[in-house]
Amino acid sequence: MSPNISATRIAIINLLILSLLATLVGRLWFLQVLSGSEAQKLAERTSVRTVYEQAPRGFIFDRDGRTLAQNRTALTVALDVSQVPNSRKDEVIGNLARVLSMKQDEVRNIFDDKRLATNAPRPIALDVDKNVVIYLEEHADQFPGVTDVEIPVREYPMHTLASHVIGHIGEIDAEQLKKCEDASNHANETGSVRICRPGDLVGKLGVEKLYDDWIAGKPGIKQTVVNVNGDPVGTPTEDPPQRGWDAILTLDAGVQTAAETALQDGINFARTQTDRDTGKKFNAPAGAVVAIDPTTGDILALASNPNFDPNWLVGSAPPGALAALNSPKANMPFFNRAISEAVPPGSTFKPITATASWDKDPNLATRSFDCPPSIKIGDRVFKDWQPGGQGTLDLATSLAQSCDITFYNLGVELNNKSYQSGEHLQQVARSFGFGRPTDVDLLGEAAGQVPDAEWKWNHFSESQTFDRRWFDGDAANLAVGQGFLEATPLQLATAYGAIANGGTLMRPHVLECLAQLNVSQATNVQQACKNGRTPKTAREKALGRVNAQPAALQYILNAMSGTVRGSGTAADAFAGFPLDQIFVAGKSGTAQNPPRQDSSWFGAIAKNGDKQIVVVAMVEEAGFGAQIAAPIVRRVLEQYYGVTSTGFHAGAAIKG
Fold first, then answer.
1. Fold designation for 253-503+546-641
2. Contact in structure between 120 and 220 (CB atoms under 8 Å)
3. 25 contact partners, CB below 8 Å, separation of at least 6
């Protein structure tokens, strides 16, 4: 080889080496000098991961401190979707569905829910068996991102008792979420700003819903700074959850139990009886009972049948239970008939008619009334419930024996005497609270209806064959609680409360107070409420004075006491009750509501010293008020006054 060629090659090789070294040095200089600051910024880029912890809800107690709603710890399977590789998403969903006995679509919907945070565990299944959790832990490689947590869930230890008052909780819906977000810029009555997030459990019915801002508590917030890789940077900050306020209700669990048991007994008995008008058994699909303290408006019992077990709505329903509740055959168990069902109250309205007539006739108490089998008003024949009539009666006996003819005539008289001064019976009825909500602290209350000439004219159109004018026959129907009149059991109880207390219409309420208690100790209700708070929706409040003379109210109260004695319509239902010790005044009602069968009503006012109560029972399509509703009311009175009860005993089959 030539020395010159060898030197040339060496020179070329050296040049290449120098070029490569120069390129390498240049690249290093670029990375370290020109791009170093950008790399440093990328490495230091962080974000805040926020995880919310559900707060324990406040407990719910009755007036004596008995627990109606509480919390328990539930073992829950949760999933952090950020820890699931995209390539394994379908695999994990399928595995979870199989182990948790869920449908894959159910798991996928939770997995894909964009409303939920992607960096925090989201519940997949509540109340999971411990063996399932053990399996998940032993096969962790098949379930990336899956963990188990213990969270507080709602429990209702008395199950169906007072379910329409207590209510239940459930996942927040879009409407509730928007309402919460709209209110997020100002403090609520609790003094704090409510935080709501998709997936939250909130009140859906009853006290749980109306006082949710108080009962729900404040969720805990844990904030962690993480880098781009999701690794924690620094020390997390944590604001622990704050337990909600406890609600003490005016309900008496003993009276509530008696009301619900008697109502079911009455329904069961009614279904064994034959409707004289149709020849078929009574349907008796549902009913309601209301008991209040007439001096304060405290609701001592509020029962609606059929009812439901709120435990079934928080993840612990037996198979098929929820489907059964939503079946048409279930007769709408979530519908609170005590406050939401407005129907004709029948003859239980007659005391209001007597009160209105007192103003127009100063001699009403001494008048005699003929009670023949029927009378003709306009072109229509109106019959008394007694086919043979009832002879000559005074007003008190007309109330006690529920003579329809007396009150048909009074209705016509009031209609004729009211042209110059307005429709007097309607005015008096409205002053007793009919035709408008009672403002009870429960949601879904019906207003009812007090018909008059203007209402009838506007209600019916010219195209209908029904005559739109107001006739004497309409006034006669109104006087006996029929026709277009509609009232709820709570409205009737509130009106009777005004008769009982001398003329003050008290607002009914179910909440006594809200307090922050140590629930591990026995509840001292009086002390708790002394230190607690009462929202304005539940404060004792007089809605006004009824349009009635005190003498009229006292006379009518005494006259109503004849209903449960002697020849009164409910005397049979109250046989053996200690009426010599406990004053009881009542009124039966058998209300027509075509095309349905007659409904059974009874309202009572009872007093023993300072201990007073008003009880109203209504059973749909159950026939006679004295036979079905009156024994229900008696059973509630027995519980309230400590009278030994022998159970439900049907009264006489009297229609008045």
1. Beta-lactamase (3.40.710)
2. no
3. none
